[in-house]
Amino acid sequence: xxxxxxxGALAMAGLAASxxxxxxxxQQASAAPIANCANCQAPLGGAFCQACGQSAHIHHSLLHLxxxxxxxxxxxxxxxxxxxxxxxxxxxxxxxxxIDGQRKNYVSPLALFxxxxxxxxxxxxxGGGQLLTRDANIASLTNHAASAKLRVERNELALAEARKxxxxxxxxxxxxxxxxxxxxxxxxxxLYVVSPExxxxxxxxELREPSWFNKMASKIMSSPPNPNANFPELEKTFRxxxxxxxxxxxxxxxTIYKFSFLLIPISLPFVWLMFFWxxxxxxxxxxxxxxxxxxxxxLLFTVLIPLSILNQGWLIGLxxxxxPPLHMFVQLRGTYSLGKWGALWRTCMLLLVANxxxxxxxxxxxxxxxx
Length: 371
What we know:
The protein starts with a helix and ends with a helix. It is mostly helical. It contains 13 helices and no strands. Helix 3 (91-99) runs antiparallel to helix 11, helix 3 packs parallel to helix 12 (313-336) and helix 7 (212-222) crosses helix 8 (232-243).
């Protein structure tokens, strides 16, 4: 997804979420005589149709079309400012209130999930994609600089041989000067893309650590093929992805973006199993719980992207280890009115299930994205 596509997707997310919310902000009625509704032809008695709810005043201007776009996004954001703080700090209270019918001031879980998915991949397109490109540039420029250095060494040896033979010295010196210039240019380009704080090695250059995806690809390619693999098609898929990790990551990101909604039906049965004997708890309650939980995890991942760009590894590790289990525990207690021990063992089970589901989901998405 390009930066322009990501920005457009984010705007569409706000509009789609606003439509899901079904906002009915009052508008002024037209000064024209009120007759029948343009949508259902029912007689009109005010600013809105009493049968279908459509506004009596029908706009036909480009200015109003732009106004609807801005209003849809801003109205969604107004509700989001009330929803997101509760989602982060008091997720159980938010989930319980929505289930109980207190919905006017909060974004619905489905609309918020839709918006968070768009937001996550919007940030990823500006953050994670650029980091992968940076790693690829560093690898390419490193190889180029190494080749240039090798040419310089060969020309230096050739010059030494030419001086011993006292023949062709001028030509070899010219070739050596050209190769040294090329080496200098390659090293300067490499220095340009490497962060300044990392330039501390004995050669003056210390490369940035490659991304986790490139590390995994290198490890896969360095290991020999296993003819006795239990899942040969899966191994073949991973090796195909490792041949071009940047392209594989791009396809993986876009496939996750398209099929992220599958996490909802995959998760629901496992949540139901933890409460099937509890009276008064319905599948609708579980759906709201899962949607708001996925919204928080998506928001957490979105926050991790800029932290990775700033090289805040300790903070990323702290958030990844503490935020998900703590959020699950608080949301379980508040949503289902559980005691500490009831919420604790369900949190442990939910963490286990979440890791299994996420692992299976990533494998399936990877298999779909590389073919």
